[in-house]
UniProtKB/TrEMBL annotation:
Binding site for FAD: 183
Localization, UniProt: Peroxisome matrix
Protein function: Selectively catalyzes the oxidative deamination of acidic amino acids. Suppresses the level of D-aspartate in the brain, an amino acid that can act as an agonist for glutamate receptors. Protects the organism from the toxicity of D-amino acids. May also function in the intestine.
One family name in Pfam for this protein: DAO
Any single biological process term in GO: D-amino acid catabolic process
Keyword match Isomerase: no
Designated name of the protein: D-aspartate oxidase
GO molecular function: D-aspartate oxidase activity; FAD binding
Length: 341
């Protein structure tokens, strides 16, 4: 019997994956996703969608590694199934190169990705401006396919989707028993969390079908990720810039940076430029909260602030958010559930 009404606010990568997890793990819940924007208009639609973690300063490293491993395992199974093409999930191998030796030759996630090793001198000959490199195989989500596939999976589980901006969670009081907050950068306005801030990232989608490997400068500022119909070139990190408009001057910088790393990109034809706001935070906010206002009570689970690493972590954080929802279920006033029995 479905007795618990859950609303997930935010229909981006984090909201959809959380809604899918709840609808699969907690059959007693009906789940509705309410969001101002959906794919192709979310942050994830701009991203290359490659699984290479960025460490959060204030989340314990073991927990980040666990989230990454859960996400990697989930996507590994999809990549290795008949659904891979529709979901846009596949393996991608390549090189991460550094101009100076990084502090850690083996990042915390080295044994989650496949075949991680340091590059040989012969391999480094491809990158004459770099002195050190790592090579491995990881997974990549083509967001234009992956996000609609997630949404379809959610609807197949009986989930509902509503396009709407929420001005206050109290709008949902009475209609839902538990509210899950997956609004990314929207949390700054919606709940006034001063710890979450935008880091604008701009990318170019180019036509370079001859490139089959990812190439990433370890400084995180220059990267080349081959996708299904295009290759994503990046990028930029502009803190506290709220503009979603790509800056034409930046396009030339991105092309210059990437051509230095991969000379065959000189003069490549640009298909599109795009920009998105990474919802940056010292730690992902993953916790439950009971909110009170004027004698009313609302159970909330937060899951936002994935910064530059949403794709790398989203299944791990969705599973944790699902556990938090499960823990709230017995706490909800028995009048709520009884009235519907
Ligand atoms: C250029 C760029 C490249 C990236 N590359 C990678 C990569 O290679 N690998 C990786 O792991 N990550 C990457 N990322 C990061 C990744 O894209 C993000 O971490 C992820 O998309 C965040 O997802 P989200 O669902 O939290 O946010 P969003 O996609 O922003 O979703 C938030 C949703 O909430 C909705 N919303 C907000 N406020 C409200 C409200 N008040 N009412 C209703 N709805 C609301 C919005 O409309 C939106 O749909 C990249 C990001 C950028 C910008
Ligand atoms: C995405 O944004 C465009 C332009 O604002 C709009 O026309 C389109 O309906 C949006 N798509 C979705 C799925 O919200
Ligand atoms: C790739 O291009 C083909 C042909 O133009 C198109 O049908 C398909 O939808 C595109 N796929 C993606 C993921 O963009
Ligand atoms: C969308 C949402 O649930 N927003 C709420 C997030 O949590 C804070 C409390 O920390 C609420 O005030 C917001 O309204």
């Amino acid at each position: 019997m479905k007795t618990v009404r859950v609303a997930v606010i935010g229909g981006g990568l984090v909201g959809l994956s959380t809604a899918v997890c709840i609808s699969e793990a907690l059959p007693q819940c009906t789940v509705t996703v309410i969001s101002e924007k959906f794919s192709p208009n979310t942050t994830g639609d701009v991203a290359a969608g490659c699984l290479i973690p960025h460490a959060f300063e204030e989340t314990p490293i073991q927990e980040q590694k666990y989230w990454f491993r859960q996400t990697f395992d989930f996507l590994f199974n999809i990549a290795n199934s008949a659904e891979a093409a529709e979901a846009g999930v596949g393996f991608l191998s390549g090189w991460q190169v550094y101009k100076a030796q990084p502090e850690e030759h083996f990042p915390f996630w080295w044994d989650v990705v496949l075949g991680f090793r340091l590059m040989t001198e012969n391999e480094m000959a491809k990158f004459p401006h770099h002195r050190f490199g790592q090579t491995f195989t990881t997974l990549k989500c083509q967001s234009g396919l992956y996000l609609p596939w997630m949404e379809k999976r959610f609807k197949n589980n009986g989930g509902d989707v509503i396009t709407k901006k929420i001005d206050s969670i109290w709008q949902l009081n009475g209609k839902y028993d538990i509210v899950v907050n997956c609004t990314g950068i929207g949390s700054r306005e919606l709940i006034g969390d001063p710890l979450v801030y935008p880091v604008k990232g701009q990318v170019l989608k180019v036509h370079a079908p001859w490139l089959k490997h990812f190439i990433r400068d370890g400084d995180g500022n220059t990267y080349i990720y081959p996708g299904i119909n295009d290759t994503t070139l990046g990028g930029t990190r502009h803190k506290n810039d709220w503009s979603l408009l790509p800056d034409p001057n930046v396009n030339k910088e991105i092309l210059d940076q990437c051509s230095k790393l991969e000379p065959s990109l000189q003069g490549v034809s640009v298909i599109q430029d795009m920009a998105g706001l990474r919802p940056m935070r010292p730690a992902v906010r993953l916790e439950k909260e009971v909110c009170y206002m004027d004698g009313r009570k609302l159970h909330v689970v937060h899951n936002y602030g994935h910064g530059a690493g949403g794709f790398s972590m989203h299944i791990g954080t969705a599973k944790k958010a699902t556990r938090l929802v499960e823990e709230l279920i017995p706490l909800m006033g028995s009048c709520n559930t009884k009235s519907k029995l």
